[in-house]
Automatic annotation (TrEMBL):
Organism: Halobaculum halobium
Gene3D superfamilies: HUPs
PANTHER family, per database record: STRESS RESPONSE PROTEIN NHAX (PTHR46268), UNIVERSAL STRESS PROTEIN UP12 (PTHR46268:SF6)
Stretches assigned to the UspA domain: 2-132, 150-278
Pfam families to which the protein is assigned, alphabetical: Usp (PF00582)
Family membership: Belongs to the universal stress protein A family.
InterPro entries: Rossmann-like_a/b/a_fold, Universal_stress_UspA, UspA
CDD domains (alphabetical): USP-like
Coiled coil, from the record: none
Protein name: Universal stress protein
SUPFAM superfamilies to which the protein is assigned, alphabetical: Adenine nucleotide alpha hydrolases-like
Length: 285
């Protein structure tokens, strides 16, 4: 498996890369080739202010590259200039990467460009599955919020074609996932419809049986009612999920608007790692 790991060279991304547990999770799902990418916006000079680890991006990448190489990965580094999300998606497409990995927070001079808006823009335009790894501030500095990336997966589905594509990505997590929860959230307009509730539970159970057979993991199902984002976040907490797996919407020029408020809100506001799987017909922007 080949991944593009986008880094802003901040202490936060350094913490994510140096987490041995996270590296083991990537290894367990078959990642062998890592392409480390940092993007320098056009309006920032090559001598990035505030970088303590090196005087330029290429030197800084050497430090992060060494961590991956010591863990046994094949590594290439890339420094690009331009719009971050375009460069990230462009490299992933060119390399035919299996996944893009980005951190959700950072403390570098590029924070507003690379960590805030870029995560959303990568999510809205991604042509490859996107893993958003949560990084939080602690008393001792930045740290990954949940180290065991794929150990306990929550899959949220509305039974759409895009949700089905995310479900089909599950087997790629074999070796790292020990437990999964399959969730369907019924909107307020469906409350009181016992037939709809029963149908959803039966569909989830069929999917759960398939996962048990294919991955040999523990699987449970649940149907909740209410606002999708609130119920997904509540389920994350209930089952102590380490990653939320969800499908993105939209394949047209309006895709930036059609990602779907649920997926975008989970990426932008959630507290969990998120694995976002784009539509198969998604095209690069």
């Amino acid at each position: 498996m080949r991944i593009v790991f986008a880094t802003d060279l901040s202490d936060a991304n350094k913490a994510a890369i140096e987490s041995r547990t996270c590296l083991e999770c990537l290894d367990n799902i078959g990642v062998r080739e890592v392409h480390l990418l940092t993007v320098v916006p056009d309006n920032v000079s090559s001598g990035l202010p505030g970088m303590e680890m090196a005087t330029d991006a290429r030197e800084a990448l050497k430090t992060q590259r060494a961590v991956f190489e010591e863990a046994g990965f094949e590594v290439e580094t890339h420094v690009a200039r331009g719009t971050p999300h375009r460069r990230i998606n462009g490299l992933a497409e060119r390399l035919d990467a299996d996944m893009i990995v980005v951190g959700s927070r950072g403390e570098s001079p590029l924070r507003n460009r690379l960590i805030g808006g870029t995560v959303r823009n990568v999510a809205r335009t991604a042509v490859r599955p996107l893993l958003v790894e949560r990084i939080e501030k602690t008393d001792t500095g930045p740290a990954v919020k949940k180290e065991h990336l794929f150990q306990n997966a929550l899959y949220a589905t509305d039974f759409s074609e895009n949700a089905e594509r995310a479900y089909e990505f599950f087997p790629a997590l074999t070796g790292a996932t020990e437990r999964a929860t399959l969730l369907h959230v019924r909107g307020s307009e469906q409350r009181g419809d016992d037939g709809s509730d029963q149908e959803a539970r039966e569909r989830l159970e069929e999917m759960a049986d398939e996962l048990r057979d294919r991955m040999d993991i523990d699987v449970e199902t649940n149907v909740r009612s209410g606002a999708a984002v609130e119920e997904i976040v509540a389920e994350e907490e209930r089952v102590d999920a380490t990653t939320t797996l969800i499908g993105a919407r939209g394949t047209s020029r309006l895709r930036r608007l059609l990602l779907g408020s649920t997926a975008e809100s989970i990426v932008a506001q959630g507290n969990n790692n998120v694995l976002l799987v784009p539509p198969e017909s998604a095209t690069p922007r």
